[in-house]
Design goal:
- The chain is 27% helix and 21% strand.
- The chain is built from five helices and 17 strands.
- It has a three-stranded antiparallel sheet, with helices on one face.
- The longest helix has 24 residues.
- The protein binds 2-amino-4-trifluoromethylsulfanyl-butyric acid and cobalt (II) ion (2 copies).
- One cobalt (II) ion (CO) binds next to loops.
Length: 289
């Protein structure tokens, strides 16, 4: 093994930049234990990955169903009923329901709502944008994914923010490979979204997922290249940038869940559950961006 070879500990770094410089010998098969101890991150094995991938199929079918049904005149609670009943028909459970007191089975976030919109009486109208965020649990495995849909015909602002949010997820995903860091993801998203004149929400971040709803690490959608945890194969986490057309500031409504833009501007989001592979990444909730 040469100084410039990949470090045997699996960090993705060159040996000279990693274990060669440390007192201890390379960790070899110990990476799983090290990531758990050092970062609280549970590296997934083949059977975990298979389980999350199957939950991902349910999640994507749910979004497909919503996309087919979403129409002006519908209430957000009708979307909740669709998602709840379809999830159960698939043999899965909706993770949001009763999660830390969340009262519904899906988050539906309209226009100025950034995230965690609680389904209710709000009626969708022509020109709205609606983020629908689903997380089924299938055989104990979680997959977390969302899309922002147009309701009826979008205006120019709606087109712009949805396009920037979609592309923000894409550029974040492109940073995922062993040896890169969570900071590289945030850096890429922030650079792109701010370059488009939009802003990146700071208070909500991507997260490890799979065995629980929210696991370490946190995956911020802003930050600096090279900062934070080094990505290694078997890590599974979401990337889910929330992008505002105006300022990044938010407030939480009196229901203690609904996050809205402080300036009332539109906000959009796309989310996928991403596995770090030996060569790069695989989305476990794949859809075209
Ligand atoms: N699905 C959201 C996420 O992407 C979390 C929603 S928590 C809930 O992390 F309780 F509001 F459902
Ligand atoms: Co998430
Ligand atoms: Co989600």
């Amino acid at each position: 093994m040469g100084r410039n070879d990949p470090c045997p500990c699996g960090s993705g770094l060159k040996y000279k930049k990693c274990c060669l410089g440390k007192k201890q010998a390379p960790l070899l098969g110990n990476l799983k234990e090290t990531y758990l101890k050092k970062h609280g991150i549970r590296i997934k094995g083949p059977s975990d990955i298979e389980g999350i991938r199957k939950a991902g199929v349910v999640a994507l079918s749910t979004l497909d169903l919503v996309e087919k049904k979403i129409k002006p005149g519908m209430t957000t609670d009708e979307i909740n009923t669709l998602v709840h009943e379809f999830t159960i028909r698939c043999g899965a459970i909706s993770a949001p329901l009763n999660y830390r007191g969340f009262p519904k089975s899906v988050c539906v976030s309209i226009n100025e709502v950034i995230c965690h919109g609680i389904p209710g009486d709000r009626v969708l109208k022509d020109g709205d944008i609606a983020n629908v965020d689903v997380t089924p649990i299938l055989d104990g495995y979680y997959a977390d994914t969302s899309k922002t849909f147009f309701v009826g015909r979008p205006g120019p602002d709606a087109k712009k923010i949805v396009s920037v949010a979609r592309e923000s997820l894409r550029v974040g995903m492109e940073e995922v490979r062993p040896g890169n860091t969570v900071g590289d993801i945030g850096w890429a998203v922030q650079k792109y979204a701010e370059g488009e004149g939009c802003s990146v929400v700071r208070e909500f971040v991507g997260h490890g997922v799979g065995l629980e709803f929210h696991e370490p690490p946190q995956v911020a959608h802003f930050g600096q290249r090279g900062q934070g945890v080094v990505l290694v194969p078997g890590m599974v986490f979401t990337i889910e940038p929330m992008i505002n057309l105006g300022g990044k500031e938010l407030r939480i409504l009196d229901d203690n869940w609904t996050a809205v833009t402080l300036d009332g501007s539109l906000s959009a989001q796309f989310e996928q559950t991403i596995l770090v592979t030996e060569n790069g990444y695989e989305s476990l909730t794949p859809y075209d961006l």
